[in-house]
Amino acid sequence: MTDPVFIHPLPDSCAAGQVFELSGAEARHTEVKRMRDGESLVVSDGVGRAVRGCWIGGRVEVREVLAVAQPRPRVSVVQAIPKSERAELAVDLMTQAGADRIIPWAASRSIAKWDGKEKKARLKWENAARSAAKQARRLLVPEVTEQLKHPSDLGALISDAHSPRVLVLHESATTSIAEVDLDADEIVLVVGPEGGISDDELSAFAKYGGQPIVLGPQVLRTASAAAVALGALGVLTPRWRKATIG
């Protein structure tokens, strides 16, 4: 079984033999996990640094500094906001499947709205992503960005330098994800609401090169579509060819 992962700030400089403490929620998590002296664990800051250590006397003794692999292509998921009971499920599933960034989208046909409660709703998504990353033994926790209110604002959230490829999941598309050229530094995966993406929204995504694609013959629910697409990308690109934790 792989070592448990804890998400916690690391000392400015980490080296073998260094000892540090976990605090807050992660300290409580060690109690839930019933960590015992001598057991191995991994601590990551969630953004690019991680160590493997040994639990001794309620503290972490660093055994090795881990190389945190940055996947290529990087995948950002533009997720239409699902109903409240499915929103955290969507975040959990896409985090397990490897999403690198999550962009909540207030699609015109989304039933759920964040009006006046965006800060609280976004925090729930961040907590769901953090929890799922730990469960999946991920060293990188996906960023949850501010809400995308209209596809025309996508340019402010994607990097032209990386020449992102925008793929729009759409049940009426005729191009399969297996037929798309996926050789890119970044892929932006757009998942619409249960009611579908409007024609105006499709046109707005098309201005960024958005290409409608289909995953397969089934029509997936908005809460699971991103995870299925990320699984396909894991197989069709180099993203899953190297394990993050040895």
TrEMBL record:
Q: What EC number(s) is this enzyme filed under?
A: 2.1.1.193
Q: Which reaction does it catalyse?
A: uridine(1498) in 16S rRNA + S-adenosyl-L-methionine = N(3)-methyluridine(1498) in 16S rRNA + S-adenosyl-L-homocysteine + H(+)
GO biological process terms, semicolon-separated: rRNA base methylation
**SUPFAM superfamilies for this protein:** alpha/beta knot (SSF75217)
Residue ranges of the Ribosomal RNA small subunit methyltransferase E methyltransferase domain?
73-233
Q: Which domain of life is it from?
A: Bacteria
Cellular localisation = Cytoplasm
A Pfam family hit: Methyltrans_RNA
Q: Which GO terms describe its molecular function?
A: rRNA (uridine-N3-)-methyltransferase activity
Q: Which GO terms describe its cellular component?
A: cytoplasm
Keywords for the protein's UniProt record, in alphabetical order: Cytoplasm, Methyltransferase, rRNA processing, S-adenosyl-L-methionine, Transferase
Kinase keyword on record: no
Give the protein family. Answer: Belongs to the RNA methyltransferase RsmE family.
PANTHER family under this entry?
A: 16S RRNA (URACIL(1498)-N(3))-METHYLTRANSFERASE (PTHR30027:SF3), RIBOSOMAL RNA SMALL SUBUNIT METHYLTRANSFERASE E (PTHR30027)
Role, per record = Specifically methylates the N3 position of the uracil ring of uridine 1498 (m3U1498) in 16S rRNA. Acts on the fully assembled 30S ribosomal subunit.
What name is this protein filed under? Ribosomal RNA small subunit methyltransferase E
Q: Per the UniProt entry, what species is this protein from, by scientific name?
A: Corynebacterium anserum
